[in-house]
């Protein structure tokens, strides 16, 4: 069973502050993703990565940076947190590549409140 | 560009009946994967079922099955003999074969009533 761990599980941040959300997976997956969930918007892709030391922009990357220092770890960084970034953030991983290996395994989510 | 659309925001059904949730998608690629995921009340998101675009047969897993209509760019999720614990939000998603992005729809909230 794939294991994706997010930390922290919840966080309250101040406007203008820096926030780092962490994700760790133990399944040797190549692909990792950060999604944002807001009511009425479903899951929207922020950043993703298919190899260590490389990240790609998703559909809503503005205001976010990502870092993939190793295959296991993928961080989402909010340099200047804003009220509009209040949401639940999900990390996911996937083997990717071949035809059978592209199921996403999700972490439990991080609830971020920016005040 | 890729796009996934779920027009049904919320559906209510009586338990033990069958429900169909709709999903249409847009892609320029000829090869792609379509998925359905379930988000429970606790927030957990789990994979349910997948359809590969090159396969004509509809995928089936347990009491979940798909209605894949490629000419209509449609991939419906059918749940038969619904149970109270099927109450959740269901997301449709897609990924082009030669891409890494996985795009989701906005979700359909299913309420299964006793």
Straight-line distance between termini of chain A: 37 Å
Number of strands of chain B: 12
Portion in helices of chain A: under 10%
Radius of gyration of chain B: 14 Å
Q: What is the helix/strand order of chain B?
A: EEEEEEEEEEEE
Description:
- The complex is a heterodimer of chains A (115) and B (114).
- Chain A is an all-beta fold and 115 residues long.
- Chain A is 0% helix and 53% strand.
- Chain A has strands at 4-7, 10-13, 19-25, 31-38, 42-51, 54-57, 65-67, 73-78, 87-94, 105-106, 110-114.
- In chain A, strands 2, 4, 5, 6, 9, 10 and 11 form a seven-stranded mixed sheet that branches. Chain A has a four-stranded antiparallel sheet with strand order 1-3-8-7, with no helix packed on it.
- Chain A is globular, with a radius of gyration of 13 Å.
- In chain A, 37% of the residues are buried.
- With 114 residues, chain B is mostly beta strands.
- Chain B is built from no helices and twelve strands.
- Chain B has strands spanning 3-5, 10-14, 19-21, 24-26, 32-39, 45-52, 60-61, 64-69, 74-79, 88-96, 103-104, 108-113.
- In chain B, the strands form three sheets. In chain B, strands 2, 5, 6, 10, 11 and 12 form a six-stranded mixed sheet that branches.
- In chain B, a hairpin with a 6-residue loop joins β10 and β11.
- Chain A binds chain B through residues 31, 33, 35, 40-45, 48, 50, 56, 58-59, 88, 90, 92, 94, 96, 99, 102-106, 108-109, and chain B through 6, 33, 35, 37, 43-47, 50, 52, 91, 93, 95, 97, 100-107.
